[in-house]
Structure formats: structure tokens, C-alpha cells
Amino acid sequence: MSSNEPLAWEDEQTDLAVEGLVPSRIPSTHPLHQPRSLTARERERYRRMAQRSREQSRRAAAGELDSLHEVNVPTLDTRDLMPRLEPSGLRALSLYSGGGGLDVAFERAGLEHVASYEILDHAASTLARNRPEWEVHGGADGDVHGVQWRDWRGKVDVLHGGPPCQPFSNAGRQQGHLDPRDCWPATVKAIRAIQPVAFVAENVPALASTKFAQYVREVITEPLERSRPRYYVHRVVLEARSFGVPQVRKRVVFIGFRSKKAYDAFCAPAPTHAWNNPESDLPPTMGVREALGLPQVDEYPDGLAPTVRSGLTGPRYTTSICNSTSAAKSWATLGLWPNGVAATREAASAFPTDSGAFRLSVADVALIQGFPPTWIWPTAVYQAVGQIGNAVPPPLGWAVAKSVTEALALA
Ligand SMILES: C[S@@+](CC[C@H](N)C(=O)[O-])C[C@H]1O[C@@H](n2cnc3c(N)ncnc32)[C@H](O)[C@@H]1O
Prior knowledge:
alpha/beta; Rossmann fold; two-stranded antiparallel sheet; 11 strands; globular; binds S-adenosylmethionine
């Protein structure tokens, strides 16, 4: 059977809802993950997809497949979206550093990096590999719950971080403070102990929804407004596309200042780029195909990539960056394949997809998230794409860091 031939299940129209659900026999790789309920037929379908993918992967490695596409040469250089700024003299401490999205953003905005704290060893190793001179606390040593934050008082000007978003994300169960991964109380504790002149804390936009309004008030803003010294807190919602990143990605950012003058001087980052707006004077945000250096063809009209998803807290190790049917449709419309991300552009080119869509590589996913092309991903592919999917797009983080620096300079 050729790999492009449809499988029997693809033609079946059986109503799966009337079939019984069967539990997964494969244990989840994440302790807090609750497996999806699937029917026996759905499980069989996924099993056969995985089997076919493994066989294709083996044939690609053996050089048995014809390459469908040349190795792509990107058009977008993300460094142009976040030019290196002069050192400001401000010292930055990073919590929940992941693979370094915010860290590299603040570095390019001219802040001196003093240390990173990250619980995942593999993410910490990405930071250490890229910046051997940085102080990186990883694993148990990087767990924010076990740090004597007072020791950092007087040594840090800006604290930044993105506490885990799973407790609030639309893609999860949105249990807020009932989710043991909720790290906002630990973040507030760190800010109160260190007393930086400013802090930046990022999260999913759902945290700005009415569902979590009381949570935000009681856990984040009020404790900081009542602390000594008190913090004055802005909240802004930003879109990656407004900073030249070819992806649909919205984030809420809390920005707090110890001085009222700096709070008043702060201006939310203005867009640097415009997506699909010929009226705008700003440079256009590239479509994702153009950014990746792929041909513009009628079959696949260019557009923004859907939100890149991290599979790190999912049920098993995955090299997919897509976790919904609607996103899968958007990726398909763009002619891009969001599953089975390859380690390198060369490996992606040697491993054609069944559908003829372009197979992404780790470097491509990093570009779609706005990382500089020089940032290295030294870990397994599933870890690398998981770290990338968790990250703040550096050009967006850079714009925030620049606004904070400007406000502090005026105060
Ligand atoms: C949303 S990601 C942050 C991404 C990062 N800001 C970036 O731009 O690349 C959250 C990170 O928090 C880490 N994390 C979760 N619990 C933690 C804890 N208790 N202490 C330190 N890091 C933790 C996760 O491993 C994950 O890498």
C-alpha cells in the first residue's frame, strides 16, 4: 500500500458518539494530565497513524523517500524585529525561564541578565548552552518554591517571568488556584521579598477574562498594592503580530512599578508592525510562508500561523505543535504540517509528508515564535518544541522591556 492511499477508517462515517469509551492503556508522561476519553475506533485510528508515521520516519532515515521540498532559506531575520539596544545598566532576574524567550528579549533590550530559575532541567540546559556566562538554576535548584528571595534584594532592578499558564488556559480545565501548578502566589512572594524597581509577569489572555477577575485582584494586584513598598500595576494585552511575529498569539502582561512616577510614565508598547493593513505606515508583518522562505502559491494563501502549542504538559512526549482540530485546519490551509517536527531543515526536507504539506523543523518553529536564528536548541526535539511553544515571542518581550526601561529612565 502506498503511504498516500487513504486508510479504511478515513471513509467511515460511523457516529462515534454512540460507541463506548475505552481508557488509555499508555500511562501519561505528566502526573497532572487527565487522558482524553476516546472510543476503541478512535484509539485504533491514532495507533495506525502513529504506526504509519514511524514507518515513514524509518524510510526517510534510510534515504528511501524522494525529497518534496528544497531546504528552505528563511526571508525573515527575527533579529531585525528586536535590534540590540545600548546597555541600560538595569539588572534583570528571570523566573520560570523556560527555553529563554523573555530572557533573550530582555538581553536584546539592553538589560544585564543576573540569573534564571527554571524547574525543567532540559530547559535550563538550553539557557546554559546559549549563554554559558549566565547564572542558571535548573531542576530542584530552579524551583521557585525553594529559593531565599531576600538574598537577591538590592541586586535586581527588574524581575520578569511567565508563571505556568495551565491553571488558566482555555486549552486546560481552568481550575485557577485549585491547580497545584498555580505559581502566582510564589511570584508575588518573590516580588515582595526582592523589591525590584519593576516587574513584568506574562500569561495567557484568559487570565484577563472576567472568570479570573477576582483571582487577579485577590492573588496578584491587591497583595502588591498593599505591600511595602507598594507596587502600581498596569495590565496590557498584546498580540505577537503587532511586533512582526508571523503567528496568532495574544498575551496578557502585568507590569508593576515601585514608583508612581514610573507607573505614570509607562506607555504600553506601540505596535512596530502591521498585519494585513495596507493603510498602515508601519512595516508589514510577513505571512508565515514568506517568513520561512516558502513559495507563494495559489494553493496555499499566506497568512499567520496558528498559535504554536507546547506539548510539555500533555499526555506523552510529542513533536507536534498543534492541539486542536481548528488549528490543524489552519495549518493545512497554509500548506504546513505541524506534527512530527524534524530536528533540522535538512531532515525535514528528506521526510516528505503524506499530504504534500511542508514539514517544519525546530529552527522553523523557533522562527515562527520569533527567536533569533542564533539561539540553539540542544535538547530532544519534543523538549525543544515544548520550550518554544511555552515561550513569550522575543520581539513582543523586547517591546515590553523597552517600554519598562523608558519609563524607569523618565522617573
Ligand atoms: C510559560 S513557561 C515560561 C516561558 C518563558 N517565559 C519563555 O519566554 O521562554 C513556564 C515555565 O515555568 C516552569 N515552571 C513551572 N513550575 C515551576 C517552578 N515551580 N519553579 C520554576 N519554574 C517552573 C515550566 O517548566 C515552564 O518552563
